[in-house]
């Protein structure tokens, strides 16, 4: 066995020059006898700040809305089954339960909105005919002539294409 | 005017290699768009006192201090020398914009310039768009409840002016123009930097084949995107919607089958 430090892979225990990292001290790196081929993975971030913003939903409202929505759906299907199989007492309680759950769920959904009122039914408005007619109304006086963007209908295909 | 006659897609090319961190873009943006003050804080994050993009910060200048000399740009730089990275971040105006996809009110629209804008009088503050944004750009204004973000100065664009931040930038780090032209200019710039001995220079968000279909506002960075607080491989979050609906479908079918089984197998009272 050779005692020389020189091997086919270069000097023993020394990283070859081509693997040298900028700003990392060179020299011997012995860890359990195995030479890592790539540098250690390093996680970097901008001062530890998360990349994605946190949801702003109030947890009891939205989680409750989902739970009650599921409850209402299941109850109404059970109620239908009871109705078809002629179980009037079960059908009644299921239907009432579904109605109660969907009503309470709606309250949760609306309560989560910052400040809401039922929108005046303006057929020219971009959200006319949309499912959600609940809007925030704290903005000051509105002048629609100042807002050409409002003339774009939701769901309209983007006028500008990907590559111009 | 038909749908075929629209202006070309406009965007930003933010070349961070010439950014000097003056924050003129932040100030110009706040002034022009009348954005409320949101705290003058000492964050301890170098010269950054706005922390990140949000409802009241539509341009954010990131400051990064590194023990890493700027390659051959600085003659005689030694290991351990400090280098500064400064980058002005902004809404990316994605080709496939998740915020736009999830908005239930139609408050978020695509303009004729290919930009993504929130109509503040339509937004009801439901907050769907906020976790949908893969870059963490759009956010809720706390005292108001609605979602706000960069409009790429839609009002200025409509009268043929450039956005306030690009106008204010003294080094032309923020360049505004037709997106295709900006992409060409950026490719030339990054080549030049590589020739000048800055191998770390790279473009970010310029590729129309990436997870968001390319950004309307893209960047030239001098380090990994993570260092600047940018996701390395952003994906339009609505990509997973079909899979989610399939799971919902499976759950609903399972429940329906259970109910049918209960009635079919149940004894009459």
In short:
The complex is a heterodimer of chains A (164) and B (269). Chain A is mainly α and 164 residues long.
Structure annotation, total helices of chain A: 2
Q: How far apart lie the N and C ends of chain A?
A: 68 Å
Which two protein chains have the largest interface (Cβ within 8 Å of the partner's Cβ), and how many residues from each?
A-B, 59 and 75 residues
Widest sheet of chain A: strand order? 1-2
Are there runs of chain A of 5+ residues with pLDDT below 50, and where?
117-122, 129-164
The proportion of strand residues of chain A reads 5-15%
SSE order of chain A? EEHHEE
- Overall mean pLDDT of chain B stands at 91
Report Rg of chain A: 32 Å
Tell me the span between the first and last alpha carbons of chain B.
Answer: 70 Å
Give the overall silhouette of chain B: elongated
The 3D shape of chain A can be described as elongated
The total beta strand count of chain A reads 4
Topology:
The complex is a heterodimer of chains A (164) and B (269).
Chain A: E1 6-7, E2 10-11, H1 59-84, H2 88-112, E3 116-118, E4 134-136
Antiparallel strand pairs in A: 1-2, 3-4
Chain B: E1 10-15, H1 24-33, E2 59-67, E3 82-90, H2 98-102, E4 108-110, E5 116-118, H3 129-132, E6 139-140, E7 147-148, H4 154-158, H5 164-168, E8 174-178, H6 179-195, E9 202-204, E10 217-221, H7 241-265
Parallel strand pairs in B: 1-10
Antiparallel strand pairs in B: 1-8, 2-3, 4-5, 6-7, 9-10
Describe the structure.
The complex is a heterodimer of chains A (164) and B (269). Chain A is mainly alpha-helical and 164 residues long. Chain A contains two helices and four strands. Chain A is elongated, with a radius of gyration of 32 Å. Chain B is α+β, with helices and mostly antiparallel strands and 269 residues long. Chain B has helices at residues 24-33, 98-102, 129-132, 154-158, 164-168, 179-195, 241-265; strands at 10-15, 59-67, 82-90, 108-110, 116-118, 139-140, 147-148, 174-178, 202-204, 217-221. In chain B, strands 8-1-10-9 form a four-stranded mixed β-sheet. In chain B, strands 2-3 form a two-stranded antiparallel ribbon. A two-stranded antiparallel ribbon of chain B has the order 4-5. Classes of the chains: A mainly alpha (164), B alpha+beta (269). Chains A and B meet through helix 1 and strand 4 of A and strand 2, strand 6 and helix 7 of B.
